[in-house]
Amino acid sequence: MYSLDTEDTLRLVQITDTHLNGPEEGHLLGMKTLHSMNCVLDIVRQERPHIDSILVTGDLSQDGSVRAYQHLHNALQPFGCPVFWFEGNHDVPASMHEVAEDTEHLHRLVRSKHWQLILLNSQVEGSVHGRLAQDQLDLLDQALSERPDLHSLVSFHHHPLPMGSRWIDRIGVKNADEVLAVIRRHNNVRCVLWGHVHQESDQLIDGVRYMSTPSTCVQFTPKSEEFSVDTLAPGYRWLDLCADGSIATGVSRVEGIAFEIDYSVKGY
After folding, report:
1. Residues 81, 14: contact at Cβ < 8 Å?
2. Where is the Calcineurin-like phosphoesterase domain (predicted)?
3. Spatial CB neighbours of 226, under 8 Å, sequence gap ≥ 6
4. How much of the chain, in percent, has pLDDT values that exceed 70?
5. According to the model, what pLDDT value does residue 264 have?
6. Residue 165 falls inside a structural domain
7. pLDDT (tens digit per residue) in 58-72
8. Is residue 88 part of a domain?
9. Which of 3, 1, 31, 6 lies closest to 17, judged by CA?
10. For residue 261, is it within any domain?
11. Domain coverage including residue 98
């Protein structure tokens, strides 16, 4: 468990689906992902002068190389705040652990004055879809039970709710019903946050905010039946978690930069 020393409001930044490669010029669907991530981080610096923590919610790397994770570590270190990572379907845990050794990056439970962050692994090795294994469901249930006094943000890579895109909804959390059942057993969950879908969404269900966030590289077209790349720019989400359990949040995207994208590719 990692403790964050914060004021009444916990100020987070979420970046997701960075898809970094070992080579600095590495790309996803034609977009150079290290460059696009750095463009996003530039606007984070401009817009969010005070950050208590940064969450990187999976698919950190495209090629699974140690060097890709080193790029991420090096890019985020100047922010001077704790940074927490977890796995997406493209990630290689051994490479992640090699770079994250002796850092806070892989802590699964983070607690502050009024909030706890429960960061789970939805990766199924060798698969694009996700599943929360029993040990992850147990971690979720235990953390929520231990501190019913803390407002809770739960995060993992894959989406637990349908996004309205047939191809995307085939590769979400396969045991979402089990995950949501744990969440419904407790009254201290305020937010469920994910990546994977390369698009923004925000809905309120039974008092819980369910949110996805744009990728720092290419975006996927919402409500598309087949794989489709959107024209929207890379972005990030900021979240201010307030002492009373309320959440202020928004998405910002890079402006004024033309990114190269290969729209002819039919998968990633």
Report:
1. no
2. 10-199
3. 166, 167, 266
4. 97
5. 65
6. yes
7. 999 999 999 999 999
8. yes
9. 31
10. no
11. 2-253
Separation between Cα atoms, residue 259 and residue 217, nearest integer Å: 9
Cβ atoms 201, 162 nearer than 8 A: no
Q: Do β-strands 201-205 and 208-212 pair in parallel, antiparallel, or remain unpaired?
A: antiparallel
Rounded distance between C-alpha atoms, residue 150 and residue 162, angstroms: 28
Structure confidence at residue 267 (pLDDT)? 64
Whole-angstrom distance, CA of residue 66 vs CA of residue 190? 34
CA distance 9 to 210: 20
Burial 52-80 (b: 16+ CB within 10 A, else e): bbbbbbbbbbbebbbbbbebbbebbeebe
Cα–Cα dist 100/120, whole Å: 16
**Domain assignment of residue 264, yes or no:** no
Indicate which CATH number applies to the domain containing 244: 3.60.21.10
**CA nearest to 240, candidates 84, 10, 4, 5:** 10
Structure tokens at 125: 């090795």
**Chain centroid to CA 67:** 20
Mean predicted lDDT score pLDDT of the chain? 94
- 23-45 average pLDDT score: 90
